[in-house]
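Example A, followed by Example B.
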Amino acid sequence: MSAATPGLVGLHLLAGVAVLAPWIAGERPWWSAARPRQACERAWRALGVLERDLASGAPGSREAAERALERLAALLPPAARAEVEDARGRLAASAAPAGELASVRERFPPGSVELPVRRGSPLVAALHPVEAGLQVLWCAATALGLLRWLGAAVGLRAGALAVLGLALAAGGAQSVARGAPDRTLWREAARAAGPGERFLFPPVPFGPEETAPGEHARPPGGEHPLGTDAYGRDLLSRIAWGARTSLTVGFAAMALHVLVGGLVGGLAGTLRGAAGATLGALIDGMQCFPTLFLALALMAFVQPGTLVVIVVIGLTGWPATARLVRAEALRVGRSDFVQAARVLGAGPLRVAASHVAPQVAHQVLVAAAFGVGSAILYESTLGFLGLGVPPPEASLGDLLRGARERLASAWWLAVFPGLFLAALLLSCQQVAEALRARAGPRPGGGGA
């Protein structure tokens, strides 16, 4: 077992909590066999609104009524569906369309007919294509890692391509299968379930923003394994979805500051004359400002949001990467093979892309590994200070911020999010340290 394995496994598992958050904690069932009572009631009420619109001659109300009848017909059994379809056909040519809707409402009030049982996975139907692809990617990567750990003959390159192909296929299939937004209150539907109706909920059937009346600051146990916060929201659900926010910010901000830092640092180390000196001075000047203080100053003047936090952390963390890449580019630029390329007429951009970039790529990878942990820590700090992702969206820093006033009476509010954040940062640090230990000097990249 290599030095990176424990940290990599830990990071993979903690990232899995974020990626699989809807399957761990959420109000949508994994699978259900239910009668669409709530959808039928909504469609019936919508017909009442459209009936008044038709009576008043509101523009576009006839087309909206036809669509509403189509939605209602899809929920009913075959005999009733045929009647609604006939009413929909008459509506187009009727001189009194409001009367047609009134007759349908009188004929099919809620509970008047036995609705057919509809089977499926509400959770899968609601997933975003990118989300579905990431979940398949995580599961396939887990399977590939287990096979290699068990000694199975799995080619790493072929396995990685297969994993990526599965993720893209899952995202494409989900984009085709995704339906209209589901507004069903699933736990209410489960409580009112009749014969033949079944529901399979996640282990924690509570969403991250869902409040439970009378469950404020409840200690761990029962339906809430990690307890609830001061507003009655399940803490495990908040941690799983908050980890998703923190990891999204961490990886996206890392990609941004590595991209900016690698580009500026590579050009500063490759270009000669005034251009290289100016970029070097820019890097040194930016490093005079502490990253956290600069981020705090910028957040004070902008509207908080996930994208804003990503941009602020990414644009304040790039000087460290740029300085590292510039130093490596200067070292490699003095090598014999780079000097030979310049003598043969290669320009600065070609030298940077063809000769310098491959030699500094390993250092950029190490910087990116350290950058993920740093970005997560900065996001948590901003959230703890109230300048991060705005509520009610969960993040690890916001969870710790909400625990400040209840440390004595509700210890679990600080302990569990703090342990998760500490484990996440420790895993990132261990992976980064192992990568730095393995990234030795490259052949042909000797110093001056």
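Example B, a separate protein, is given below in the same form.
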Amino acid sequence: MLLPLRGFLSVVFLYAGISKIADRHFLDASSPISIHSQIVAVRDISPVSGLLGPVVDHSFAFGVFTSLAEIAIGLGVLLGLFTRIAALGGMILSLSLWLTISWGAEPWFTSADVVYLFAWTPTQNTAESFGTGGSTAPTSGGGLVLNFRSCSEVFSLSILSRR
């Protein structure tokens, strides 16, 4: 059931990571389309602006990390390796991008990153394997499990804080 969603998210994150590495302007701080320029542009409107100082100061390293994380997440979900961890990484990365780069989208629901955040939740909660038809029921055991309710609460609070 989650195969199309996992396939889509895999392709999106693999493409995003590879395209960042392939684009010579992405890591060039003097370029207007670099990660440095993007973070500087959104620093004042982001709800996590206080945390962006080190990101601006070390934008090259954060750009490389983001690219490699996107590739690792895409491969993990595509190949069914550490799927739950990869999905959690996708949720964290999507939330980070939404709270920074996409935060100024008007109207707010036009931001793709908020959609990706919620698209990762069923993948993270079920973590079924592509080829094995693994269990589709969330596991229990007291570990950190982000579910739709916790994500919707974060989403609701962030929207309310914008007003």
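On Example B: Residues 59-79 form the longest helix (21 residues).
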